[in-house]
């Protein structure tokens, strides 16, 4: 077999290919449960499953059936569903602007652009979709960690009402998970204030959470 190499390179043609490839793709920004975001560039005609698989691969998540992606929408005065073009900079405002009824699960079997009306930039949130009665049913430690992040976020955002006595105990366990065992040297006065667990967190709540942290060995 004889290989022939050309000594010229068509820069304009290459740029046209790059532009065409960019125009035929969309950007999907996915907010994860640890409040970080990752952007995926996918084909305009791809299905929701493609984005789910990219997210699962990024997280190296094995137990996938418990999770999904949601997007946000609102209604016009005519009652038509319109997907919001949401930027990461206004993400905190959504927690107050939209309730759960304004969130819709991304359908893996349908094309993304058929579900999300917009141009080429969409925002999704990675969430727990199905809960188990007992965490021991989850085989992977990392899966349990994602459940922990979801519950912690739901309590902080006010979507999951919890009595103060339970909330302080959960906060203590979260501190133990984040910082390890309580030590007076590492856990200086006011250290709990570095974390947010509930909406109306105050000094009394933080003192009780610290006490639960001390007991969680």
From TrEMBL:
Cited PROSITE patterns: FERM_3
Matches recorded under Gene3D superfamilies: 1.20.80.10, Phosphatidylinositol 3-kinase Catalytic Subunit, Chain A, domain 1
One GO term (biological process): actomyosin structure organization
Domain of life: Eukaryota
Coiled coil (UniProt feature): none
Domain FERM: 26-217
Protein name in the entry: Tyrosine-protein phosphatase non-receptor type 4
Organism: Schistosoma bovis (Blood fluke)
């Amino acid at each position: 077999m004889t290989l022939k190499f050309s000594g010229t390179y068509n820069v304009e043609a290459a740029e046209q290919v790059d532009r065409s490839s960019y125009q035929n793709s969309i950007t999907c920004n996915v907010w994860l449960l640890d409040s970080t975001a990752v952007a995926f560039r996918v084909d305009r005609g791809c299905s929701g499953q493609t984005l789910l698989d990219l997210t699962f691969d990024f997280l190296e998540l094995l137990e996938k059936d418990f999770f999904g992606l949601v997007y946000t929408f609102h209604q016009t005065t005519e009652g038509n569903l319109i997907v919001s073009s949401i930027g990461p900079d206004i993400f905190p405002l959504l927690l107050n602007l939209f309730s759960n009824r304004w969130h819709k699960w991304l359908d893996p079997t349908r094309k993304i652009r058929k579900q999300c009306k917009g141009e080429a930039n969409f925002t999704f949130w990675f969430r727990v979709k199905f809960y188990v009665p007992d965490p021991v049913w989850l085989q992977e430690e990392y899966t349990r960690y994602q459940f922990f992040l979801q519950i912690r976020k739901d309590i902080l955002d006010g979507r999951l009402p919890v009595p103060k006595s339970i909330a302080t105990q959960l906060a203590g366990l979260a501190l133990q998970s984040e910082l390890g065992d309580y030590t007076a040297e590492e856990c200086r006065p006011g250290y709990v204030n570095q974390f947010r667990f509930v909406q109306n967190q105050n000094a009394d709540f933080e003192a009780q959470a610290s006490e639960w942290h001390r007991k969680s060995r």
